[in-house]
Amino acid sequence: MTDTTAGSATEPRRTALHDEHERLGASFTDFGGWDMPLKYGSELAEHRAVREAAGLFDLSHMGELRVRGPQAAEFLNTALVGDLGRIAVGRAKYSLICAEDGGIIDDLISYRLAEDEYLVVPNAGNAGVVAEEFAARAGGLDVEITDETAATSLIAVQGPRSAEILSGLVPEEQRGLVADMKYYAAAPAQVAGLQVLLARTGYTGEDGFELYVPNAHAAELWAALLAAGEPFGLIPAGLAARDSLRLEAGMPLYGNELSRETNPFEVGLGPIVSFAKPQDFVGREALERLKEAGPKRVLVGLVGTGRRAGRSGYPVLAGDQPIGVVTSGQPSPTLGYPIALASIAPEFAEPGTSVAVDLRGKSEPFEVVATPFYRRAQ
């Protein structure tokens, strides 16, 4: 089994599935300090498979922090901006961990596994930072925080046929669990004879599931999902397809749309900040001031009326005046035209507003639009 703790400042860590990816001919990239599959063949084919059938992703670079104890909910309400105490057992919530100045340290998902137990999933590059922040913010509370990142693999099945694929791998008595599981819910399940935490979550804009499993069983689960999914059109997919899929779905990426220099109100995430919960939380005072003042920039969708795509870092213009910057952008494989997310001055954020993107000295026309760019059929 691959040693997931291997790696140094110059050598990225490897997931427990690294050998499987090599056998499938993957191209690798360093992402968040991990050696991750970028693509296996055609990133366009992988993108289309997820939209039309299913794709299989290794997401084992993501962090896993288990939070247990009588004050687990109170702790998370102190550490995060959302109200984690209100979610029911078996459900999940998207939230943020912010600094004292309101800047975003990370966006993450928290699963409530029991009244006094949660699994918190931070992003790969931020997992260590979030673990440190959790330790610092837990003082005086009856809570135990365990970093399970190095021992846990995460595999995602994403696409319209994902439920069918999983239904064939669970015991007959659990097929209803798969079919009826709500979005942002999770439950223990047996998949291909292996015990997993099964969650109906994802980052592609499609229906899909994420499966948490100990490293020792990751390769067996990966192989079973590949074999079961092949008749349905499932293929392995890498980070390139994951990025184009999440952009079409208008989902932010930490390091692009989100950072320590952005606050929730600048990126459309103000509604997840709970000022009504009883606990004080880190960054509350700064966030109250930021909400009152209103954002100096906002995150919007852009659609190109030409053929060239704006990329991260390209200036957004009104006339010849800079009004912001592209945070993510590329041609949309599904829609067939350029799309982008951009942080711009609020006065230009109304959908239908004409702007331009400076593409290395050439001004290309774009239009502000509401996101998501793509929405799956229900």
Keywords:
about 375 residues; alpha+beta; Gyrase A, domain 2; Elongation Factor Tu (Ef-tu), domain 3; six-stranded mixed beta sheet; about 30% strand; aminomethyltransferase activity; EC 2.1.2.10; transferase; GCVT_N
Structural features, described:
This is Aminomethyltransferase. The glycine cleavage system catalyzes the degradation of glycine. It catalyses: N(6)-[(R)-S(8)-aminomethyldihydrolipoyl]-L-lysyl-[protein] + (6S)-5,6,7,8-tetrahydrofolate = N(6)-[(R)-dihydrolipoyl]-L-lysyl-[protein] + (6R)-5,10-methylene-5,6,7,8-tetrahydrofolate + NH4(+). The glycine cleavage system is composed of four proteins: P, T, L and H. One of its GO terms (cellular component) is glycine cleavage complex. It is a single chain. By secondary structure, the chain is an alpha+beta fold. Among the domains are: 13-62 and 151-248, Probable tRNA modification gtpase trme, domain 1 (Gyrase A, domain 2, 2-Layer Sandwich), CATH 3.30.1360.120; 296-378, Elongation Factor Tu (Ef-tu), domain 3, CATH 2.40.30.110. 21% of the residues lie in helices and 32% in strands. It has 9 helices and 20 strands. The chain has helices at residues 18-23, 43-52, 72-79, 127-137, 162-167, 175-180, 218-229, 239-248, 284-293; strands at 13-14, 27-31, 34-39, 54-58, 65-68, 92-98, 104-114, 117-121, 144-147, 152-158, 186-191, 194-199, 208-214, 234-236, 298-304, 315-318, 321-331, 338-344, 354-359, 362-369. The protein has a 6-stranded mixed β-sheet with strand order 11-12-13-10-4-14, with helices on both faces. It is globular and about 60 Å long. The two termini are 40 Å apart. Mean pLDDT is 96; it is low at 1-8.
